[in-house]
Amino acid sequence: MKIFLVLTVALFADFAIGDIDMCFMEKLIDIDVGHKFVNHYPGRKQIYFGIKACADSLIEVGARFGEMFFVLSLGPSNGTAVRTYKHNAIRPSSSGTESLLECNEMKYFWVHWMDGSLSFGQGLEIGIGTINTIIDDDVRPDIYNNFYYVMKVGNGAEFENQCGILIADWNVPLREVHRDDLRPLSIPL
Questions:
Q1: Which of 2, 118, 157, 181 is most buried, by the most CB atoms less than 10 A from its CB?
Q2: What does UniProt give as the signal peptide span (predicted)?
Q3: How far is Cα 179 from Cα 187, in angstroms, rounded to an integer?
Q4: Radius of gyration of the chain (CA)
């Protein structure tokens, strides 16, 4: 009986946490063409995505809040860098020396935002593997606009994003789950 109880509790905990299912979005071959992420959970203030691209590629993932752009650059020149654009002025936030991209493996990342704070990280668990956290008054959910991605240098990149409904989110209205927002957009680069 104790074994049954332990297994039941473990199974319930697994369902309560929920899994993150990732779905193929597209393969990029064009340079400097921005694309919007489809955010299936806009009310959650976070997004998960995967990138498969060679380490000599330069991929930028950006978050737009009003007129403010926050950009995570993944690539060869400076490895990983986070920059902030406000009215075309660039403010570097941080940089690293290693590339987080691999040709033959999908690498996963997350972005999480709340009033005054935006974090970029690696992996599929918010708060684990944080690359950078930006503290800025312009990060506000009420002016959240979109997330985009663009290949600046490279011979192709594959993208995935979160899909499906998390078990913990079964009560989310369907109008918040599926949005067909994939279309090219103009990004000041």
A1: 118
A2: 1-18
A3: 21
A4: 18
Q: Are 117 and 80 in contact (CB under 8 A)?
A: no
The total of other beta-carbon atoms located within 10 Å of residue 17's CB is 12
Please give the pLDDT value at position 173: 47
Place of tokens 């509790």: 9
Q: 72 burial class (0-12, 13-18, 19+ CB within 10 angstroms)?
A: buried
User: What's the pLDDT band for 88 if we cut at 50, 70, 90?
Assistant: low
Q: What is the mean pLDDT of residues 36-60?
A: 86
The arrangement of strands across the sheet holding 68-75 comes to 89-95, 79-86, 68-75, 58-65, 144-153, 34-36, 184-185
Query: How does the average pLDDT of the chain come out, rounded?
Result: 75
Q: What is the pLDDT of residues 52-74, one digit of tens each?
A: 999 888 898 988 888 888 888 88
Q: Which domains does the chain have, with CATH numbers?
A: 20-185 (2.60.120.200)
| pLDDT above 60 (res 179) | no
Does residue 120 contact residue 132 with C-beta atoms inside 8 Å? yes
99 alpha-carbon distance from chain centroid: 17
